[in-house]
Amino acid sequence: MIKTIPGGVIAPKGFKAGSVHCGIKRNIKNHDIGIIFSEESCKAAALFTTNQIVAAPIKYCRKIIQNGAVHAIVVNSGNANACTGKKGYNDAEKMAHLTSKHLNIKSNEVIVASTGIIGRLLPMKKIQSGISKSIAHLGNQNTHSLNIAKAIMTTDIVPKHIAVKTRLGRKEVTIGAIAKGSGMISPKMATMFCFITTDASISLNTLRSCIKKSVEDSFNQITIDGHMSTSDMVAILANGMAHNQNITSSSKHNLTLFQKALDYVTLHMAKAIVKDGEGATKFVQVEINEAKSISDARKIARMIAESPLVKTAINGEDPNWGRIISAAGYADVTLDESRLKLFINKITIYKNGLPVTPIPKRLLSEMKKDEIKIQLHLGMGNKSTTLWTCDLSKEYVKINAEYHT
Amino acid sequence: MIKTIPGGVIAPKGFKAGSVHCGIKRNIKNHDIGIIFSEESCKAAALFTTNQIVAAPIKYCRKIIQNGAVHAIVVNSGNANACTGKKGYNDAEKMAHLTSKHLNIKSNEVIVASTGIIGRLLPMKKIQSGISKSIAHLGNQNTHSLNIAKAIMTTDIVPKHIAVKTRLGRKEVTIGAIAKGSGMISPKMATMFCFITTDASISLNTLRSCIKKSVEDSFNQITIDGHMSTSDMVAILANGMAHNQNITSSSKHNLTLFQKALDYVTLHMAKAIVKDGEGATKFVQVEINEAKSISDARKIARMIAESPLVKTAINGEDPNWGRIISAAGYADVTLDESRLKLFINKITIYKNGLPVTPIPKRLLSEMKKDEIKIQLHLGMGNKSTTLWTCDLSKEYVKINAEYHT
Q: Which of A212, A244, A275 is where one domain is finished?
């Protein structure tokens, strides 16, 4: 039984968060730096963007995560510290050192993350004061989680945090998280930030495989604009303070329960990122069935979800399904037109290579709904995948034509 | 010496065109069907979309083009005859038969092409009367070319036709063409229509290799929205009426001259399609240099050109170059950040892994120009490529959200 509870990222035992406005963002009301801290050092695992061009904090974190031990996370928004060379790397390292010094923890146990504009050096004086003030504000109330969820936002409109409880044997284990989107979102790990905390006791290798599996079916299955970011990161910290029987690869039942709770959190966050996609007015689920392989299904789902023609048709509440079929056709997957079946919100509109005529009237009212479900059966095998995306609106263009200057 | 002349697709000797409004498009002023006819049967070659889902006329043409002989082209707009099953195929075949009967030519020497909405059966009565009327209107004036260029338009704003003359030995050879875009445009052959006529005498194999080579560096190097169409076709018809010495693979000098003139035509048309891209306000050239291979260069150029974040930044006249570098980073090509050099309209803005600071003021005025040239040097080798694209505007979203209903 998975139960959602308040508290977000600080809901698990032993976690605190603190955040402030340090001056990177213009509006003084907007927090732009924050710290997540665990009373005890955590087993930790993280996944990073697969972009060849990565921000300085990613380079730094790739190194320190190898030890599998993390005690705190420091994160800022408004500046990605990307394309900033050696100086940028030193700045990321300095953020870790400042944080560790103030918290009296090891400097190689601090995750550093930055998001925002690419190509500008961090204002290190502001960062320095932001770190000490954030630490002064550390606390474990729901508002602390909400505030740090806001502190990592860029073009996001809605702060994203969640916590769930599950029972493992006689112990309750809690998982909390904060996340941010909402542009530069494309599948292929990980295209955003999600910081996950848990008080579960779990072996490092099991934690690593759990998060990898969970990300595969959540954050790697969303796309907003197909542009992969330089700064993406999903990190999970487990401090063991729930004192459950340690979860390992051989603890089958508890491992399944923990994985389920973790999947619940990551899928919730993945969907929340899509719903808050830049300019999004519709939440779109693309389901590919009867594929020869999962990889085939994913390729097709991605082509459909990233086609600007499909996305604008959905924005216009227009059942222009020819755009869906034609996008499936250029995914580099062998298809047989006569075996395809296409449904929108469960209404059959194309089968045996022919459109259903006349177009069911109900389809027009379905297109007006906030959630659109596209299902395409390929008739080539028995593999399936689901991907989540949003529409493409004039608002998306406005946001991104005006973001920088 | 390549010289542009009037006449478009009917400029080469022996070609005529005719077009009318037959009732597929709503506005009676808009021609929606047309015929291109050569007095003599032509050697012909064609390239088609690589989409797995192809329109009925593509299936039909793939078969008949194998003979290498074409006498006429019949083309309609407003309906793509795609996703229309067996009936759609029979309709395409019927268009060829009706055309051949009226023109008294062989029925397997007629190219059929349809563009427009996907998933609707052709109104064959209208088509039938449109074919006979188009034939009644056949002529070889500039307006005949202009009218058929208009007749193949869908969301295009500007009709696209051109003709060039070049001298091969003592004979003048003419190449003419019409083309259409302007959505569902993505590199990977061919993403639009372009019908090319020439009075050159040329062997079939040479014609085939010339058109393939020419398309590779023109239509395959443009992208508007990354959505590959089901109906794309580039066809060339050569009737030999210029009576030049027959061009073969061994006629080096004349072959080079012919290829150059053909390349001029295809590149002109490719750029014209991008300039008339849906909602386009800027013409963008993406040049990748110092790549290890052409394929690497093309992958990166494509990622940059198809990123909605790059396209909206250009729309907003915003030198947000971090989006360009980060798009290059996810093209699945190994990069070394410290070797990259990025220029916009020849102004250096990023090198040695660092932004040029302060940002040159001139850059802001350059961003306001109608033509933006992005040059990225990878420092990995000596291969280059150039790709052409346009920006992404609110108007694109408007056009495509409202196209269907």
A: A275
Same domain, B254 and B292: no
Among chain B residues, CA nearest to A353? B85
Q: Do B402 and A318 touch (CB under 8 A)?
A: yes
- Over residues A37-92, the pLDDT tens digits come to 999 999 999 888 777 788 899 999 999 999 999 999 999 999 999 888 899 999 99
Same domain, A291 and A267: no
Contact, A240 vs A199, CB < 8 A?
A: yes
- A306 interaction partners in chain B (CB closer than 8 Å): 226
Tell me if B320 sits within 8 A of B290, measured CB to CB.
no
Q: Quote the tokens at residue B178.
A: 């019409």
- Among the options A49, A84, A191, A206, which is catalytic? A191
* Closest chain B residue by Cα to residue A402: B316
Kindly tell me the burial class for residue B234, based on how many C-beta atoms sit within 10 Å of its own C-beta (0-12, 13-18, 19 or more).
Answer: buried
- Whether this model's pTM surpasses 0.90: no
Domain count, chain B: 2
Containing structural domain, residue A328: 283-401
Which of B51, B318, B397 has its CB closest to that of A393? B397
Q: Which residues in chain A have Cβ-Cβ distances shorter than 8 Å to B87?
A: 354
In degrees and rounded to multiples of 5, residue B318 shows phi and psi of -115, 120
How many A-B residue pairs are in contact by the CB < 8 A criterion?
224
The reply to whether A386 belongs to the active site is no
Establish whether B154 is an annotated binding residue. yes
Is residue B330 over pLDDT 60?
A: yes
Q: Specify the higher pLDDT residue, B319 or B343.
A: B343
Which residues of chain A are within 8 Å of residue B319 when distances are taken between CB atoms? Answer: 404
- Which of B85, B186, B315 shows the shortest C-beta gap to A401? B315
* Annotated binding-site residue? A154: yes
| Residues B198 and B114 placed together within one structural domain of the fold | yes
- The rounded mean pLDDT for chain B is 90
Question: What one-character-per-residue DSSP string does A13-37 give?
Answer: TTEEEEEE--SSSSSTTS--EEEEE
Distance from CA of B133 to the nearest CA of A (A): 30
ipTM summary value:
0.73
Residues A254 and A290 in one domain: no
DSSP conformation letters of B243-303: -PPPB-TT-HHHHHHHHHHHHHHHHHHHHHHHHT-TT---EEEEEEEEESSHHHHHHHHHH
Please give the average per-residue pLDDT across A288-299, as a whole number.
94
pLDDT in tens, A377-399: 999 999 999 988 899 999 888 88
Do residues A140 and A251 share a domain? Answer: yes
HSE (side-chain half, CA atoms, 13 Å) at B13: 13
pLDDT at position B223 over 80: no
Residue B186: pLDDT band by 50, 70, 90 thresholds?
low
CATH number of the structural domain spanning residue A270: 3.60.70.12
Which residues does chain B have within 8 Å of residue A310's beta carbon, measured at their own beta carbons? 227
Kindly identify which residue of chain A lies nearest to residue B186, measuring between CA atoms.
A330
Q: CB–CB of A355 and B397 under 8 A?
A: no
Cβ separation A326–B84 shorter than 8 A: no
